[in-house]
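User: Last request for today: this protein with farnesyl diphosphate, please.
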Amino acid sequence: MSAGGGMKDMPGHVAIIMDGNGRWASLRGQPRSAGHRQGVEALRRTVRAASGMGIGVLTLYSFSTENWSRPAAEVRFLLELLRRYIRTDVADLHRANVRIMVIGDREGLEPSLRGMFEEAEALTRENTALKLVIAFNYGGRQEITRAVRALAHKVAAGKIAPDDITPAVIGNHLDTGGLPEPDLLIRTGGEQRLSNYLLWQCAYTEFVFIPDYWPDFDADRLHQAVETYRLRDRRFGGLTAQTA
Ligand code: FPP
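Assistant: Here's the final one, the structure of the complex with farnesyl diphosphate:
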């Protein structure tokens, strides 16, 4: 950890809420689907930029557990877009030494989509550059609930004692177990809330909210958000060297 006043290191883990596709499209008199399509282009730019900057983990909120309540046609379009993205980009990502991971609830997903996730993860498992974590059918409370249930089953089976449960144990039972917590969370689109994203993991995360809609996101905006982060003074509840 750096002392107060100093410039921090690069964030090891950046999480993004990619918001504003629909508004981006409406502003142009286009259907929401056009915004999502441009959103995929922004996603590609961002993955490339993050990889080039040496960011270790990039976690993207691609579809929340709440997104199922959108009109059926939009849900279908988003799922198809994700399928197409995986089909067309996984080989490139693999060549770029990117490791793909998917978090969220896979229970109840179409077997073919689950199969695509599993294949992409297996193909890229040994890759050592950027870890690209795609949050799909993801909700923070649901993730914590699944972890608590898994722990309850272990207690009931006598594998662990109730007092063995610590914050670290809970963290390791989340979908993100083994990953570092996000240093920086970026949300585009002007809203300033977490929307059930990485609730446990963001206890000490720095938030940067930017007004631009997601389809306009690019390497410059990522650099700016990272610079904002690096100038922040993270204290983790303690005091910095300057104020101590
Ligand atoms: C928010 O825009 C974005 C989403 C609901 C999902 C993010 C999806 C993409 C970036 C494109 C899809 C890419 C993949 C790989 C699935 P919004 O629709 O909430 O925008 P609004 O707030 O303006 O309505």
